[in-house]
Amino acid sequence: MNITYNEATQILNASIEKAKHLGIAVSIAVIDTGGHLVAFARLDSLYGVIDFALKKARTAAMFGVDSEVMGAIISGAEMHAYGMINSNGGLLTIPGGVVLKNKDGNIIGAVGCSGGTAEQDKEIAAAGVHK
After folding, report:
1. Whole-number percent of the chain with pLDDT over 70
2. Of 40, 73, 72, which Cα lies nearest the Cα of 57?
3. What is the Cα–Cα distance from 12 to 1, expressed in whole angstroms?
4. Which helix (H) or strand (E) holds 92?
């Protein structure tokens, strides 16, 4: 099961509102379980954070945990993560990628945010989840 366009835009809009409330110029990406972009917003952010938002979301969707959790797993296991992080077009294991689940608890995609601090990115992405 994948996220629908309508669900993705609702999540994106909630994240946009949070970013505006915080006054942060970010990029926000909502993807399906295959890592395909469903909805996107660039709120006057720099070019580089577009890719970061996508990579954070793809990391969360691929592993079924928020991107920062995957980072903690890697560092806690003392793994050399070069191969993992550079696979699949690149992944990013820092805060800002949040798993999206349906009411039955099944993963339907992920949202990624980049452009603020790690905590701001996480807060903005999570705002869409709790919509």
Report:
1. 81
2. 40
3. 19
4. none
